[in-house]
Amino acid sequence: MGGKTQSLKQLALQKFKHNFWGVFSFCFILSVGLISVFAYTLAPDHSQYANQMHLSVHSKRPGFTVDMLTIPSQIKNKQNSIDKVFFGTINTDTEIPVSKYYKANDTLIYTEYASDGLIGAEKTLSLSGFSDQEISNLVAPRTFHLGTDKYGRDVLSRILVGARISFFIGFVAVFISLIIGLALGSIAGYYGGKVDAVIMWVINVTWSIPTLLLVIAITLALGKGFWQVFIAVGLTMWVEVARVVRGQIISAKEMQYVTAAKALGYNDYRIITKHILPNIMAPVIVICAANFASAILIESGLSFLGIGAQPPMASWGAMIKDHYNYIILGKPYLAIIPGLCIMSLVMAFMLIGNALRDALDVKS
Question: Looking at residue 131, what DSSP letter applies?
């Protein structure tokens, strides 16, 4: 023998590596996943939900820079470092955009920033009680790289933090749909008869209800919130998995290796989980990639309708909802930027699904 015979897994992996768009999509999805996990570390606004508002600098274009006066609070932040990294900082300091400022003795005199050519109010701040280090850090320029929204929040920070919802809802929804779909599809396909008829009736009834309408009904039943949306989306996506698993098991249970397993006295649970399911997972994996993309779109639609992630939580769909009217008001980027983020992530999952389909196709 001149060389080793490659396994089917190795062949599939080799075919996937040669698919440029599949590898590119995988790297893109991995990058978005890392960004969503460490969003608060990467975001310029480290406050919880990136919700630091500065109404005087609302709706500013990308690249806008302003001097920001930060007045330290007397309230001590008792958060630990891990909590700050993954859930944001509880910001107790006061931030004020200023147009000009100067120091006179122990007093800082500043003029608040005002838009549209207006002159802001002039105010004073006593510097007694501040250390030299605190005084030097009171005013610093701040750049909003993607501009600000209508509440004066940093759009870049909201985009980064909002990636967490869109990314993780895919994992939760696909996980829930896999558990339900694999269980019901396996039982229906393996046992057949009346059991199959009952499960197929449930599948057909669920299939006939519009997905968005069913998600809205489940969301209203469970209540508005973060995890409620995740569960609602997952409970509506198991149907495709169940149908695919049922069809695959009906074909696979007639194979010789299943007959041999029955002859050896293995119970049904072991035959299904150890012998049949591992051999039919290729189409299920492709369905999961498509469901990932569908879950992101459904969550964005729910947030746009106002029954998804609730304010002040950052969500790409909610950002479009807040700013879609700005498309005709000369600042379309406020709605286009989160829309492009949704489109890019959905496209990446669809491309990786196509790549997996080609790599797992035993006929090619």
Answer: -
Same domain, yes or no: 203 and 311: yes
**pTM across the whole model:** 0.86
pLDDT of residue 53: 92
Tens digit of each residue's pLDDT (9 = 90 or more) over 210-253: 877 888 888 778 877 777 888 888 888 899 899 999 999 998 88
pLDDT at residue number 2: 44
Q: Is 35 within the bounds of a domain?
A: no
- Residue ranges of the chain whose pLDDT lies below 70: 1-6, 362-364
- What's the pLDDT score for residue 33? 93
pLDDT at 6: 64
Residue 70: phi and psi, rounded to 5, are: -110, 115
Bridge partner list, 64: 144
Whether the link from the prior residue into 312 is cis, omega within 30° of 0, is: yes
Per the CB < 8 A criterion, the answer to whether 339 and 301 are in contact is no
Question: Residue 303: exposed, middle, or buried by beta-carbon count in 10 A (0-12, 13-18, 19+)?
Answer: buried
Structurally, the chain folds into a number of domains equal to 2
Residue 119 gets which letter from DSSP? -
Nearest Cα to Cα of residue 238 among 164, 185, 186, 286: 185
Look at residue 260 and tell me if it is in a domain: yes
Where does a domain end: 119, 144, 169?
144
Assigned token pair, 294: 């569908």
The pLDDT of residue 3:
45
Residues spanned by the domain of 93: 54-144
Q: Are residues 126 and 209 in the same domain?
A: no
Q: Per-residue DSSP letters for 206-232?
A: HHHS-HHHHHHHHHHHH-SSHHHHHHH
Q: In this predicted structure, what is the pLDDT of residue 156?
A: 95
Both 70 and 214 in one domain: the answer is no
